[in-house]
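Cross-check.
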Amino acid sequence: MEKEALLSVKGLRTEFYTEHGAIPSVNGVTFAIKRGETVAVVGESGCGKSVTSLSIMGLISAPGKVVAGEIQFNGKDLTAISDSEYRKLRGNELSMIFQEPLTSLNPLFTIGNQLSEVILLHQNVTKAEAKQQSIDMLKKVGIPRAEQVYRSYPHSLSGGMRQRVMIAIALACSPKLLIADEPTTALDVTIQAQILHLLRTLVKENGTAILLITHDLGVVAEMADTVIVMYAGQVVEQTDVVTLFEQPAHPYTAGLLASTPKIDEHQQTLPSIEGTVPTPDTMPTGCRFSPRCPKAMARCKQEAPPMFEATKGHYVRCWLFDEKGGAAV
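Predicted model, tokenized:
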């Protein structure tokens, strides 16, 4: 699988430095993405999804730092390249749609200025050609009156329009890998469906790989080929999307799915997972999910479980699968 992988992350550890010392936010994350594949990362807020994506993009700044692990992208070890090499990759081969478009777009520059800048930086084109490409890209992401929007400032656009502009900027140079951090947050259902359709078209036409970060399991079911479930800075389950929904193995994944409304079931109240995600400086001993887990054993509170291969291609970080004869990986 690694030979086919466009992105391969191994043992990623990202720490933030505080007055209490180094606090790991992401600890030992390992996964791979093939060309043209959509991999979804799911989990509650604070589980390390966004820090993982920012680590891949090389955007972790002080007081944070990637301290261990490998990030191989298209044959390059991103942890070993210079800042200037990273800048050549970002926005070109490796691109990201950020979670908050209003804070990601510069309020002092027009949409056209910010979109053309990306194209001029990475492509050998004139300003006139960059302008035309920018307008064409705005049209491609479904923005009406693209010429007018090109001349507009971010504050004059709606949330949905700003999100589309962010997608246009991310796609301007036809990246090999697109990281989409909650791309449909706070958008109405119609706009959400259009953006998801746009991302699917991108995969189909350009063979772009997508790392989709979301908490919306409906979006996961619609978009993903493979799903990674994160909890407290670690991957706790990884498998294909059909297996995850039909045979969730980790108690945390089962809890997430149980708390999702189902159209064919009438429920007065939805079950919830008791407790909250621990903060990086208050991680429990043993399994990080054990204080909230309905199936926790004495061993779970004392020893941290490795990843087990429950079935072929289905990986679970849970001692239950040591009991069931799963192979540690």
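The longest helix spans residues 189-206. The mean pLDDT is 89. Passed to J.P. for a second look.
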